[in-house]
Amino acid sequence: MASSRNLSRFWEWGRKIICVGRNYAEHPKELKNEVPTEPVLFLKSPSAYVREGAPILLPYYTNNLHHEVELGVVIGKGGTNIPQSNAMDHVEGYALCLDMTARDIQDQCKKKGLPWTLAKAFNTSCPVSDFIPKETIQDPHNVKIWLKVNDNLRQEGHTSSMIFSIPFLISYISRIITLEEGDLILTGTPKGVAAVQENDEMVAGIDDIISMKFQVKKQTQ
Ligand SMILES: CC(=O)CC(=O)C(=O)O
Ligand SMILES: [Mg+2]
């Protein structure tokens, strides 16, 4: 029994969104980044959450907004220094997520040694599906995540290709940042990231377990 409160609308809790980068070797390779030997972590703000029915907004300062489809892990029981051996007891469920990324801004930040906040943490940068109860996904390291843009398949990856497993990530993160009920961990994206334009329609899914649809719109000032 992980949670005392109902996490089926975890995005309304306003908790942390902790993202893992470069967790599928093929993705850092396609961006000519090094494959990590330790998890790469960054955060999104709770205002990054957006749900089906509302648009993903193109930030006014980017010309290259990329999609990254990812498996999200919803934390049900918080903790610090969580051992890998019981890390899965802290999981309440999952969600399909997009880590929307202003790639041109991220490239500039990397060159200047600046943080990725503008590239990764802007409003609507974290579209999420409905909550998926833990029992629905027997093995989170054995599902396919996919994303289509205007009906063209762009990303298709298998969670068995993650470099760092979910128990390892929970344990690693909790030694640095205390995990709380309602936190969301994005576990990294497989290859195939690419740009979206205004009015593009993205449909993403986890096998045939869940799918979600979002449209991209220009931000009106
Ligand atoms: C280079 C990145 O943007 C890393 C990232 O977010 C990922 O999922 O990998
Ligand atoms: Mg990502």
From TrEMBL:
GO biological process: carboxylic acid metabolic process
Catalytic activity annotation: oxaloacetate = enol-oxaloacetate; 3-fumarylpyruvate + H2O = fumarate + pyruvate + H(+); acetylpyruvate + H2O = acetate + pyruvate + H(+); a 3-acylpyruvate + H2O = a carboxylate + pyruvate + H(+)
EC number per UniProt: 3.7.1.5, 4.1.1.112, 5.3.2.2
Any one GO cellular component localisation term in the record: mitochondrion
Listed Gene3D superfamilies: Fumarylacetoacetase-like, C-terminal domain
Domain Fumarylacetoacetase-like C-terminal as annotated: residue spans: 16-216
Keywords annotated in UniProt: Metal-binding
InterPro entries (UniProt xref): Fumarylacetoacetase-like_C, Fumarylacetoacetase_C_sf
GO molecular function, one term: oxaloacetate decarboxylase activity
Family: Belongs to the FAH family.
Name the UniProt record assigns to this protein: Oxaloacetate tautomerase FAHD1, mitochondrial
Organism: Pyxicephalus adspersus
